[in-house]
Amino acid sequence: MEQQSLLGTLGLDWKLFLAQLVNFGIVLFIFWKWVVKPLGATLIKRQERIEQGLKNADRMDDEKKKFDEWKQAEMKKVRTEADHVLRTTTDTANQIKQDTIVDAQKQAAKVTEQAKASMESEKSQMLKEAKQEIATLVVAATEKILRGKLDPKKDQELIAESVRNIK
Amino acid sequence: MIFAIPPLVAEPIFHIGSFPVTNAYINSCIAVVFFLVAGFFLRTKTALIPRGFQNFAEAVLEFLLKYVDQVTHDRRKSMKFLPIVGGIFLFILFSNYLGLLPGVGSIGRYLSVHGETELVPLFRSANSDLNLTLAMAVFAVFFSHILGIVAIGFFRYANKFIKIGDVVKSFSHGGISIMTAFIEFGVGLLEIVSEIAKLVSLSFRLFGNVFAGEVLLTIMAGLFAYFVPLPFIFLELIVGLIQAVVFAMLTLVYLTMATAAVHEPAHPASAEASAGR
């Protein structure tokens, strides 16, 4: 009984207790259902978005770096190749030039040689013909001079001998 | 008599049937309406780029979450406890500050109390009614037990208090462990007492602080109406915040402790074996 009066003095009343409990329950329910749940989800969603964004930015940076490196390497490679091509081209051109010159010189030498040879043969031919002509002339002239003094037999011998000498 | 010291018990203003609507209950209902309205506005505010009210609410929520994290060390647990702990904190804080507003304790009806006509205030700080503080304490402790049972199972949770399982197990080990088990059994029974102590301490601490504040402010205003009560109103602002923090923190600690995994006492045999290794 004393316990009862103590609780009564403190104002405890099961109806009020229940009513306050319900009030408190309503507040908790509202706070949970209408505030923490949607806003908590929003906070998590936003955090995920930000993390995703940062990750994307990092990835972009990485990719850009990689691309830059690749570009540098590629540029270097291309430049080396270009140098190489240029050098090869110059070398080839020089070689061709050299070859052409050598060829031309050879050709020229050959032509000169041929010209010389043909001139030589022509000259000897002409000399041969001239000798023949001269011999014939000499024979004819001698014959005319000596017609009367020589018999045909002697004449023939003489001609033969002259010809032999000419040769 | 204008400066009547508020009585220990909240006074009924009117009755609905046999239900007494007390001035503290009216304040509690005002708080409920406030949370209903605020919740109603926040219900659909889930924009990724917050502004205005949503921004403020998110700031409050993150502030609370930071403190809850410090106790739980686990964000998922924090999100689970936040509705209870945060709700308790905000409800107590709002109720306490509502009780400090002018008009609370001074606007009232002349009613006949114990045969005398007295000015009975229409509003009274909600937490200066033991019914509410006890209701919150009962809810907090009861909920911690429910969460504990859900987290680690009924029998393992019950074994925290009635350690019959440990006593039975100890017989298989024999020797000193039987004695240890009986001592542990006694400790378990003490745990039950401590659970009741939790209820009493939680509810009476809040009730006592808020009620004492009410009395203090009334007396100070009665001594000299101007300036003298000002520092005490500031004091009550701090007390209102601190009491909300204390109640919420203790609830959080109870929840965390109840859901923590049970620390199994190491078997003497296995302990020896591991020591010998």
Automatic annotation (TrEMBL), chain A:
GO terms for cellular component: endomembrane system; plasma membrane; proton-transporting ATP synthase complex. F-type ATPases have 2 components, F(1) - the catalytic core - and F(0) - the membrane proton channel. F(1) has five subunits: alpha(3), beta(3), gamma(1), delta(1), epsilon(1). F(0) has three main subunits: a(1), b(2) and c(10-14). The alpha and beta chains form an alternating ring which encloses part of the gamma chain. F(1) is attached to F(0) by a central stalk formed by the gamma and epsilon chains, while a peripheral stalk is formed by the delta and b chains. Signal peptide: none annotated. Belongs to the ATPase B chain family. It holds the Pfam family ATP-synt_B. GO terms for molecular function: proton-transporting ATP synthase activity, rotational mechanism; proton-transporting ATPase activity, rotational mechanism. This is ATP synthase subunit b. Its main location: membrane. Keywords: ATP synthesis, Cell membrane, CF(0), Hydrogen ion transport, Ion transport, Membrane, Transmembrane, Transmembrane helix, Transport. InterPro entries: ATP_synth_B-like_membr_sf, ATP_synth_b/b'su_bac/chlpt, ATP_synth_F0_bsu_bac, ATP_synthase_B_chain. It is a single-pass membrane protein. The chain crosses the membrane at residues 16-36. It is found in: Cell membrane; Endomembrane system. It comes from Candidatus Doudnabacteria bacterium RIFCSPHIGHO2_12_FULL_48_16. CDD domains: ATP-synt_Fo_b (cd06503). F(1)F(0) ATP synthase produces ATP from ADP in the presence of a proton or sodium gradient. F-type ATPases consist of two structural domains, F(1) containing the extramembraneous catalytic core and F(0) containing the membrane proton channel, linked together by a central stalk and a peripheral stalk. During catalysis, ATP synthesis in the catalytic domain of F(1) is coupled via a rotary mechanism of the central stalk subunits to proton translocation.
Automatic annotation (TrEMBL), chain B:
It holds the Pfam family ATP-synt_A. It is found in: Cell membrane; Membrane. This is ATP synthase subunit a. Coiled coil: none annotated. It comes from Candidatus Doudnabacteria bacterium RIFCSPHIGHO2_12_FULL_48_16. Gene3D superfamilies: ATP synthase, F0 complex, subunit A. One of its GO terms (molecular function) is proton-transporting ATP synthase activity, rotational mechanism. It is a multi-pass membrane protein.
